[in-house]
Amino acid sequence: TLTRRNFMASSAALAAFAASDIKARAAGTPARIGYNGDFWGASISGVAADQGFYAKHGVDAEIKVFANGPIQVQALGANSLEFGYLGPGALWLPATGK
Question: Which helix (H) or strand (E) holds 83?
C-alpha cells in the first residue's frame, strides 16, 4: 500500500530530480546506479547486475553501494549517479536544500 507519507516522499524526490540538471548520457556510457547496502529492498540493483538483468536488456550499468542516504544524495547532486534507491529520510534532503 502507498501511504500518504511514502507518496509525499516520492513526490518530493520526483520534483527534486525533475528540476535537476541531469544531462543525457552518450551511447556506450554506463548508467550509474546507487543503493544503500543496509536498506531493505535496495540490494535489488546489485542482484539485477549480478544476474545479468541489465546486460540482457542492453543497459550498461555501473552499480555503486553507499553506506547511507545522505552520501548518496550528495553523489546524485554532484552528477556522480543517474539513479539511486533511497530511504524516506534521505529523500527529504534535496527538498530542504541540504
Answer: strand 83-85
